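2.7 Reproducibility. Because tokenized structures are sensitive to small changes in the input, we list the exact sequence used for RNA helicase, including any N-terminal residues retained from the expression construct. No trimming or masking was applied before prediction.
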Amino acid sequence: MTARKRTNSGKQKGQPSKRLASGPPTKKPLPVKYTDLIAIHGAVATVSALLQRRGIPTNLKTLKATVENQLGGREFTERHLRQLATVDPESVKLRLQLVQDEHGNSQRELSVSLSLNHDHSKKRSLGIARVAQEIGKLNKNFETRLYDYLSCEFKEYMSWLNEEHQPDDRTSWSSQISLNAPDIPEVALHEESLVQGAEPGDTRSMVAARSGTLQSLVQTDWYKDQVVHMEVENRAPPVYGELKYDLHPKVVEGCRALGIEKHKFYKHQAEAVDHLLRLDMDVMLATATASGKSLCYNIAAGEYFASDSNATALYIFPTKALARDQLQAAAEFFVKSKLLEADEVQPFDGDVEYGYQRKLVREKARLIVTNPDILHVTVLPKHREWKRFLSGLRLVVIDEAHVYKGAFGIHCAMVMRRLLSLCKREYNTNVRMTFCSATVSNAKEHVERLCGRSSIHTVDKDGSAKAARTILIWNPPLKQGAEEEEEDETGWRKKAEVKGSKSIRRSSMFQTARIIGHFMSADKRVIAFSASRKLVEITTKTVLELLDGKGLSHLRSQIRSYRGGYLKTERRKIESALKTGSIQAVVSTNALELGIDVGDLETSVHLGFPGSISALRQQIGRAGRVPRKEASISVLVLMDSPLDQHYGKHADHLFRELPEAVTIDPANNVLLRKHLVCAVAEKSCYSQEDILEFFGGPGIEEVMNLVYSGEMEMEDGGTFRLTASGKKMERNFSIRFIDDNQITVKVQRSGDVLEQIESSKAMFFVHPGAVYLNSGRTYMVKELDYDEGTATVVQVSDNPGYYTSILDKTRVKIISEAEFREIPVAGSSKLPDSILRVHHGVVDVTTTVYAYLKVNILCGQNLDKVKLDLPPLEYTTSALWIDIPPMTNFPELSEDSFFAGLHAIEHLLQSLAHLFLLLESSDLSGWTVSLHDGTGRPQIFLHETIPSGVGLVREIYSKHIESILVYALERLETCECGNTQEGCPSCIQITRCGYYNENLDKKAAISIMKVCLHPKDHLPVFMDQTGKKEN
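Resulting structure tokens (single pass, no recycling of outputs):
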């Protein structure tokens, strides 16, 4: 490392010096077998560019003759292309396809795509010289990738090559290095198109060829060609980048302790560190799971610590479990590098004991690992006690930024604004921010909303090594004829189905349980995910029954369920057992989706699409984190829902398109009001200028509302303070919910606490008489007491023989209309081309749970309907509503079928919104009415379930409603249930239906959509991986 004088002149206190790094070590010449590959790449790039300019497809057949001519007659084969893709999978894309020749016979065709920076098909006027320049850049990049690949995969050989050697007397030096050079393996080709295009019965051999575990899976007697798509992700070498900032020796030592040398930073790590330290910018890192994001902010914090003995840093994680898990890695880096003492790295959350331990954190810690909750309830309200730490604060890290959505996301956005305004106003500190996230389509926009800052640099080109992985999309088979159940299915699976549905497919839950059991019997470690707590419990119970039935009872102790609501001690016990290998399998909600260390897992199973592509990628990334010879395996088992079955038809969207957008609305007046009271009380933000800077125009508007209502008053000079009534406002509220009131679920005699549920959701899950599951045990709800905030349950030893499902009714009243859009609609024989009007505004929603059904577990028959007397749930929120032509335009439809058709369309719109936005199934709801009191016409409503909304409906209204309508009609017309009236869960039946999926008419829905809800000349828009729109 070049020695340089360290200086702090010309910079703010605590900001590290900006030092340029020395260059990488010199490279020795490579043997001929590797340099030949460079020549082949150059020839392929040149010929591909010429073919592209002429609009000719690039495949082995069209490339072969011209490439061989370029190489002076040397042979060019499929093996060479596979080796090129092994070295540089980002630039050299190979795809194996089934194509038909002129006689209609299917043939294999290997297509080739090179990522040239210049789009020759659109700018042919640029000369050959420019084309050659672009090809030269591509070749130079390939040579760098080749050297990186060899250094990573053939370490011993490259170390030997770079040493000083004397040639063997019997051979020349070039012959000697060539003899010792290992062969570059041939990449395994993408074969998903073969699976999709294969005839029934052919998929078994294609999947079996991937690995022994998959071979045994598809040879089971219950495999019926369920695999509809196979994605093969090949092992890929890392892409290294040049770090232009010269790191402090102690930081270098910390990296070396982790096995990372100075010149071996991944490309995205080098870019992030350069922008944080050299360019002094906030950074957003949006790269894959296990790509080394934490090293970037550890390096930045280390530089601050090395430059200023008073500098501090704050690492914020969305959960205590994740924060504690990451604490150990951070402590190892900073203590081993001697940048910090062990007691200067501290956790601070609700588990830290009051008194001495908390005092130690306040007085000693320089790095605090925490969560947003503790900032809100402890640090910010008592910031004077944290003066030492906040005065030195230089870096704030927000990990798993994509998790900050919905009400929780808005709360955290408010907490960040309070923290940043406090640091600036009270402690005069310039805080740098680093965000880490899974890949989402609007990463930069999201974090700007989260912290209220702009000019955040986004790093999303992942340079980390990629482990080999095989991903199966598994669609349960259709039931045969009048068959209703699989012979060996347990009755428990019925509880996982869509209520009131008539499923045309076999149980997704039961298929998932079978796959988990199969992997366990093959001695594979498994993590399985499910979207709901109920499904987690039922799936675990079913796996246990299957193990017993297969004579594998000794594996019962090797599987556990895991979800929110479990006691902290129980969750930590399961996490530890999973990490150490004490248990073999876990079935979890998305609680284990985040970066908690779950150890070395080989397989993942996913019961249903988790609601977003980014969530699916996060979950898949929990397995296969440790490189191994055999590829890890992930299986996505599709459920009978419109969203899942959409991906059954368009599986390539899961891997070729950008993930959904994350949406939060910092202008939510319900939450903004609460946090403005906190900010003024903390005196972190109490002038008009402060509020405008950190909370914007909505903040000024809401603070004036607080003045008018008497909770605040404005002083001379334009500052605000709380009045006596304002000081009584609750400031110790939870930031996890909109609803501050919680219902505690307790066992009747023992008083054991099972979980806490938001008061507004209690009527749906723990109403009197409900069957309630927890940790594989069954309880009955005896009493729901809103005044006491408790739900009392009793455990039942025997299976009650039924499960419960609520019936509810909703009414929507329009309060105000903000705007409307007019969308051209394709006409029909009944109506000419017309205009579809969609409105956006504010509505009042009233939901009442008026009864529940007891449903037979075995056959799904309704045994009883029990009335309930519960208070209604009322709230004001954001909504869109669609004008529907009067029923007179549909003379073939009766009044009942007209309503049932609208109701079916409403279900589809709710389901398919997930294609474009990152949201939970409970975030969005709908309502249909044949004649609305306020508008005097038929309406379909989509509304948010969170008071004031979080911006979801506005995004749908402004950007996605046309695409959702197009996909809705496609789902109706292509669903396997055919031309039936009642439809099925794959098209119009959904879980969250207050009518128990009654009053649905698929035929009427198709008729209505073709007449008046089919956007004219519109194709659904997705974003491809480069950010370009794909129609």
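DSSP finds 31 helices and 31 strands in the chain.
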